[in-house]
Amino acid sequence: DGVPALVDRIGLAWPVDGSLVISEVHTPLLEGYAGFYDPETDEITISEDLDDLTIIHEASHAWFNKSLFTERWITEGLADEYAARVLQELDRGYPDPPASSPTERAAFPLSDWSPPAAIRDDESQDRESYGYAASWALMRSIVRLVGEDAMRAAFGAAVAGTTAYPGEAPPERSRLPNDWRRFLDLVQRETRLADEAEIADLVAEVALDEDDRNVLPARASARRALAELVDAGGGWAAPVVVRLAMDNWQFDAATELMSRASDVLAVRDEITGLAGVEGLEPPAKPEEDYQEAASVAELTVVKEDADRSLAVLERVAGASDVVEAPRDWFTEVGLDGAEPATDVAAARTAWERADLAAAEDAAAAAVELIREAPEAGRTRVLTVGAGAVLA
Asked: Tens digits of per-residue pLDDT, 295-336?
């Protein structure tokens, strides 16, 4: 009954190809443990002291092993919490983690939890007991804050090796191993900012050593900046180069890149505002170029293109103002039937197509016609007048 319930809650297919072998052995042979799961052979070895939690816990290790996440505290904590949730679903109670505190004598940063070894003394027993209890309590808090739907998404991304910072296109591959950093990124991917801070604090308090804890403030600041960038984007996903810097935990570089991206968005907003006044639709290409920028050089080109697009739009708007302004008689005579509004219309169409050179040329042609028309009109009037006097 437990395996189908695990499949539903974890959201990944049953990973065992063939039979899952379960062997009950004399308890002392397990050297202090209640059971083991060997993912290489798909075999569970379990003690004579059978209990529901251990049985489902060991079965869950078909997923929760180093192929999913590398740290022991993650896999053991997940195994206990998901086993407890399955037992609740099966009306067999909802066991709680044993009491633990990071200040107790046997406590240690869970990231320092060594692989299982024979338990031969009280110190080893206390250390293992603390590791299991603390990792379970931590994972219970995380799953409650994140929710099982988001956890399923995190497990799927971990298996696929995809970034925790996706854009609009299919997510890129992550360059990190599935360690605690990936775990934290993936479970926080769809989490509210308030819960995100609580999750990071819990992990820092129980699982991390001082060096790892010291990285988290820069990460939190960068994640806030990314949320602001995405919000400012108004539907524009953050550039690839920004998202992959975040995924690689290169937070100083990511912050600098986000500043550059914000400059692009500021120009875009100017373009959008002026285009709205002029009744124009901004071209789609700048959005694609911005989102797909995969290097500093590409993001720089996007900014240069945006600056030029704004400058050309200002020229097109200026040409429209010139053409629509009242004209004196000499200007009308000088135009001699030419219509600069045609050039303005061509400039507007070209700008919407992102053909900036054509837009600039057409706008310049319209302005030149208007500029030269008064002098041409005066010349024409004087020529006609002189002819009339001679006649």
From this structure: 999 999 999 999 999 999 999 998 788 777 676 665 555 455
- Structural element, H or E, at residue 127: helix 122-146
Contacts of 20 (CB under 8 A, 6+ apart): 42, 43, 44, 59, 62
DSSP 162: B
Residues 41, 64: Cα–Cα separation, whole Å:
15
Q: What are phi and psi of 315, to 5 degrees?
A: -70, -40
**pLDDT tens digit sequence for 129-176:** 999 999 999 999 999 999 999 999 999 999 999 999 999 989 999 999
Query: With contact defined as beta carbons under 8 Å apart, do 116 and 36 qualify?
Result: yes
- Rounded to the nearest angstrom, the gap between the alpha carbon of residue 271 and the centroid of all alpha carbons in its chain is 26
pLDDT averaged over every residue in the chain: 89
Distance CA 174, CA 187 (A): 15
Q: Tell me the C-alpha distance between 45 and 38, whole Å.
A: 8
The model carries a pTM of 0.85
CB of 259 within 8 A of CB of 252?
Answer: no
Distance between CA 113 and CA 135 in Å, rounded? 10
Asked if 9 and 90 touch (Cβ cutoff 8 Å), the reply is: no
In angstroms, the first-to-last Cα distance of the chain is 114
Phi-psi region of 249 (alpha: psi -120 to 50; beta: other; left: phi over 0): left
Q: What is the pLDDT of residue 251?
A: 97
Distance CA(33)–CA(8), nearest Å, equals 28
Query: Which tokens hold the place of 304?
Result: 């240069």
Report the alpha-carbon distance of residue 222 to residue 226 in Å, rounded.
Answer: 6
β 21-24/35-38 pair status: unpaired
Backbone angles phi, psi at 259, to 5 degrees: -65, -40
Q: List the beta bridge partners of residue 45.
A: 23, 36
CA distance 75 to 181: 14
Low-confidence ranges of the chain (pLDDT < 70): 193-194, 325, 327-338, 370, 372-391
Q: In this structure, how many other beta carbons lie within 10 angstroms of the beta carbon of residue 57?
A: 29
Residue 143, number of CB atoms within 10 A of its CB: 20
Report residue 351 CA to chain centroid gap: 32
Count of positions (residues) in the chain: 391
